[in-house]
Amino acid sequence: MQPMLSSSAACQGARGRFFWTAIEYYFHRIVLHGELNLDPNAEADPDQLAKIFSAHTHHHVFMNQRFRIVLPLKECYLHQGGPGFLLSCLVLPQSVVWPLFCGFLTGSVFYDAVHLSCHFDDVLPKWVTSTRWFEERKSAHMRHHYRDNSKEFGVTAGLWDWIMGTLQAGEKGIQKP
């Protein structure tokens, strides 16, 4: 029975990591890039524009400030993650909740490390940053910053950009058939 439990936990952890990639894409595209949802013909609302800027646009403007890049712990983990975790505890068995939570948490820490490494060279070891995978993720993120911020929202994975049609046309990596 023990090996079955470990493989089940590993599967749930992988599901948590996969779930993280969807949350990462959703928050980056929908929540943090609210400027993409603005009606260009509507009258500007200074309060809404200030909220959008303070949410994420400041990162595109001040992207070399190390502590503006990482996920804010209080908002991400307590205010947003806490209620989701508690709800999961109520509706899912504990044998699913904890590995799923660990995969999700690992995904968020991995996101911070990869995102910081896209902007600063001293975060991850060279053997990670010299991989083809990392070079592709960094290139995609830099294209997001410098070429078109309405494309390539995935920092740790390009899967959701591929599914949602937000890959830059003609770039290397996952291609739509």
UniProtKB/TrEMBL annotation:
The protein's superkingdom reads Eukaryota
Question: What membrane topology is annotated for this entry?
Answer: Multi-pass membrane protein
- State the Pfam families in the record: FA_hydroxylase
Carries keyword Amino-acid biosynthesis?
no
**According to its UniProt record, which cofactors does this protein need?**
Zn(2+)
Q: Where in the cell is it found?
A: Endoplasmic reticulum membrane
| Alphabetically ordered keywords of this record | Endoplasmic reticulum, Fatty acid biosynthesis, Fatty acid metabolism, Lipid biosynthesis, Lipid metabolism, Membrane, Metal-binding, Oxidoreductase, Transmembrane, Transmembrane helix, Zinc
Residues forming the Fatty acid hydroxylase domain are 18-166
Q: Which InterPro entries match?
A: Fatty_acid_hydroxylase (IPR006694), Scs7 (IPR014430)
Q: Does the keyword Lipid metabolism apply?
A: yes
What's the name of the protein? Fatty acid hydroxylase domain-containing protein
